[in-house]
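Study this pair:
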Amino acid sequence: MKYLSLIIFTLAIGISCSQNSKDENAQAMGGAYVALLDKYTHLMDSVKSDSSYRALVENKKIDLKMLLEQYQGESSTAQLEIIRSQILIDLKEYENAISKLDKVIEQGKSLADFARFQKVRALQASDEMAAALTLFHTIDSELEINDQYLEMLINFAFEAPELSEQELFSRELLEMDRWPQNDLSMKSYIYRNLALIELQKGNTEEAKMILEQGISSLKEAGQTKSLESTMQLMNLIGEPAPELFAETWLNSQPLKLKDLRGKAVVIDFWATWCSPCRAVIPSLVETYEQHKSAGLVVLGYTRLYGSYRDDQKRLGPVEPKDEIRLTGEFLKRFKMTYPVAIAHNKDGFDDYFVNGIPTLVFIDKQGIVKGFKIGSGNEQYVAEQIRKLLETPEAS
């Protein structure tokens, strides 16, 4: 899950101006970059077809490269290198961006810490979270607590390498009680993240207490839906798994959970448009192939949305038959061999109180819900839950 905004922000331009009021090139280039991003943000909001979306993405890349070329001949300054690095990050040319930032860092001047800050953002964007965290701890100067700093902390709260580090950043954010653009929905996600961390540590009651604190804190703001649904899902632990129904099945004949007693079951609530869902699929495929002979059933559960989007296509509204066909093509491309159910409504999601995907639900051989996981990452935890399911004795 990414909450990091990869756009230049006014602080960068402000620093360039304060450090050298005569660096008009940096000021002009930064202003042109902000204007370009603003233009494409508005255009993207109105996209209604896959072809239009792809054309805009391509045009944006062209314009960004043209902006780089426009200022290519200008003398290199720390301010210009930082702004160039922002454009390269937007182009996903992370190595080039980091190279430019390293040059600023090596100069050891007053902009070095700001360049380190930007490098942390580039490392986060390229999923080098361990390196990003190590560098973050080397920044000496006191950083301004602005939206970009908060987004950096949020990224660490969800994706730091160690669970203890995720917990540390989550608690720090709750103590600060400040959120990008004052978006209190993010506060609810941090409460939920902290509760899920406690659940992964085996502290179910502590997890419930955190959810209750979040619900109490955010009730007036009307931001409790994700916390309440997580609490309801948590209350399913130890209870018989609700039956699932679907009109369409791929890779399998229709299945019922009651007929799967004696097998360990993992239900993956997912969708093709969900990037974290796509990140989970390869490990689920591998785990299923390794353990299906030992009695593991992985069941992908999705639903019709009335439109279709994945990592390659952005088609907008489609007919149900086309959405099913496209989902089938997606399964083949991702080599998904386990059963996949496509419901024509959201009843199954509601029965399991799913408010965010992917959500993995772990069901033992007796048909009892033993736990769940929301979001991607921490494959070790998933593997451990599956190991426990497979070791669960069958009902006598």
